[in-house]
């Protein structure tokens, strides 16, 4: 009887042991499955966050570019205002008013110019070494012509027009400076726009100067004719 009981207990223990091992394996599988599911959900959440962050950065990039464009527009507006004030001060109309009126208008113009100069607007352009060298070269070529304006106004105007023709996509009215064009192509896009604007300003100033000179010569001629008529 005792041996039968011992055999029965041993048999029950042998049956319980596989069942216990099987339960442990199931628990491990459940835990492992939970970890996998947790990793899967965590990965999806990270992807969502990354997508949202990327979308925010894309929107900020648009705002940054709009901000730079607005600052660049203000920079151009400052240049235009200074040019307009300068043109008024040097206009023919200023020469044909009384001394007192001219002095008062010049005081107003100087005040406006001073207030305009108090506004500092600067948009820095990111350049590599080659673009920096190209910008310096292009600036030097323009400066060389500007420094010789008083020596030969007509020749300087023709040379500036050839430089301007190298900067525009329109069909130029005259010859193009091929060397200058190759230099400008090596500049950054923003620098190319600034170079073109500078040439436009120089050509406008030259045109205004020519008009002033022509008007002055016409007035001198009229005075001489009047004097000759009186002598006759």
TrEMBL record:
Keyword Chloroplast: no
Entries under Gene3D superfamilies matching the protein: 1.20.58.890
Entry keyword annotation includes Coiled coil: yes
Any one GO biological process: protein stabilization
Keyword terms: Coiled coil
InterPro entries given in the database record: BAG2 (IPR037689), BAG_domain (IPR003103)
Coiled-coil ranges per UniProt: 50-77, 189-219
Domain BAG, residue spans: 134-214
Region (Disordered): 1-37
MF terms in GO: adenyl-nucleotide exchange factor activity; protein-folding chaperone binding
Ranges of biased composition (kind: Low complexity): 15-34
Protein name in UniProt: BAG2 regulator
């Amino acid at each position: 009887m005792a041996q039968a009981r011992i055999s029965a207990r041993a048999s029950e223990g042998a049956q319980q042991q596989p069942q216990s091992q099987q339960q442990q394996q199931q628990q491990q599988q459940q835990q492992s499955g939970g970890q996998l599911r947790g990793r899967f959900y965590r990965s999806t959440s990270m992807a969502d966050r990354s997508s949202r962050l990327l979308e925010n950065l894309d929107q900020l990039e648009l705002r940054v570019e709009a901000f730079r464009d607005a600052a660049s527009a203000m920079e151009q507006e400052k240049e235009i205002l200074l040019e307009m004030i300068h043109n008024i001060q040097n206009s023919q109309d200023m020469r044909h008013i009384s001394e007192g009126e001219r002095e008062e208008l010049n005081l107003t113009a100087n005040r406006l110019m001073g207030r305009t100069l108090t506004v500092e607007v600067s948009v820095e352009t990111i350049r590599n070494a080659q673009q920096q060298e190209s910008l310096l070269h292009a600036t030097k070529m323009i400066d060389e012509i500007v420094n010789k304006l008083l020596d030969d106004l007509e020749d300087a105007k023709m040379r500036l027009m050839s430089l301007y023709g190298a900067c525009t996509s329109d069909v130029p009215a005259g010859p193009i400076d091929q060397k200058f064009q190759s230099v400008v192509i090596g500049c950054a896009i923003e620098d190319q726009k600034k170079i073109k604007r500078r040439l436009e300003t120089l050509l406008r100033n030259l045109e205004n100067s020519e008009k002033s000179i022509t008007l002055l010569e016409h007035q001198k001629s009229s005075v001489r004719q009047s004097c000759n008529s009186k002598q006759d």
